[in-house]
Amino acid sequence: MRKRLIRVTSIRAAKRFIAALVGMPSIAFIIAIIFPSQAYADDIQSDQGGAGQNTNVGSSASSEVVQQDPSVVSAQGTVTGASTAVATAESAVTTLETKVTQLTEVASSLSQPAQVVTTAVQSATNSVETASASTESAATAVSTAETAIATSQTANQTLAQATATTATQAAVVTQATTAVSSAESAVTTATTTFYQENANLGTLTSTLSTAQTAATAAQAAANEANTTTTVTETFANNTTSVVTVTTGSGVSIGGNWNTPQTSGPGLTINSPTNDVVINVNPSNQGNVTSVTMGVYAKNGNTNMTATNADGSTSVEVIDNNVSPQTQAVQYTSTETITGSSINTITITKDA
Q: Shortest CA distance to 245 belongs to which of 317, 293, 309, 290?
């Protein structure tokens, strides 16, 4: 009867001990559970005792309730810290993965990202992947340690295995924490590099904008310089306003011509004693590249010569327009001479 009571008490104590251990998370260190040797001694003594020792049996049975060793309680606190460290590492890795993804997307949006940006982002990506792998290994080690702890309640040998596994788990957690730290550093470097390159890009954009503004202004000036303006000399009030004429015998301004080319006064040349020189750009503004004349009643052919600013010349012929062929247009014609930068037109005097 005494032996039965002792066994029942031992089983209940073991159940309470197992329940306490099952509720423990993974631990960094496990101390072998030591069953009080005195309890076993009491069991043996109770088995060998006589019927007169029933009172001691009751006392012995109540003293065999297994208490957790203080080192096990301490290990449980270590387990909680390790679990928290793993959870923190996993959260940090998730945050870093999001940051790296954002950096990668922004860098990819650049048409030609700088090499230093590409390298920094790749380094950050590699570091985060390493941290993620290390964190996964730590989580696996935690799970293995928990299984080993549960199993260790049945034998000291299994407890030793759990101790080794948990020690490995602690090392893996440390490695994961280090990898997360390295990843954070890499992400920070990539972020700094990215924003620096953005600043450089902003400077280049500003410089490009300034250059574009200057180019636009230069183009506008060139367009203005290339603008063609036509000015007509009307010889109003028998004077000149667009050209100047070197007059002489046989040259005058007057008349009231009404032809397809002219209306009102005109430059009249009638057997001049000298060549007639017309300055077509007396104000020296811009370049005169073409001069057109309306000619009335020109008897015979006469050369006209354009002299450019650089001294070069070009020659055209004022054709005779007094003929039956030009009668229909009132003996008029149009003569044009071109040059690079015409200053004067010289009409050769009649022979």
A: 293
